[in-house]
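Hey,
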Amino acid sequence: MPNSGFNISFDRFLNTLTGRLERLKTGLEVERVEEEKEKIDKLLGEQFFTKELNLPPIHIENFLYFCLEDQVFKEKNLKSQPLELITFLKNKLTVYKKNNFLD
């Protein structure tokens, strides 16, 4: 049974490595979402959200996170297509306002 200690250590090593990789992946995803949010905010500005979408400033960040989690947004490169991005945001706003009782 000399290999049993090695198996336990190797399993622990794999679990540690896997857990660490998962945390790194999660961290990269958070970083990607933050970068996307900042790019959209910089591209459109706060006035777009408050005046065009009539969204209270306190809800802008949450609304952007809501949009960035959408699969359609993830699949398309909307930030490089401003008109499609605006259309997408306007469509998502209806759902966001309903979900957050803002209507």
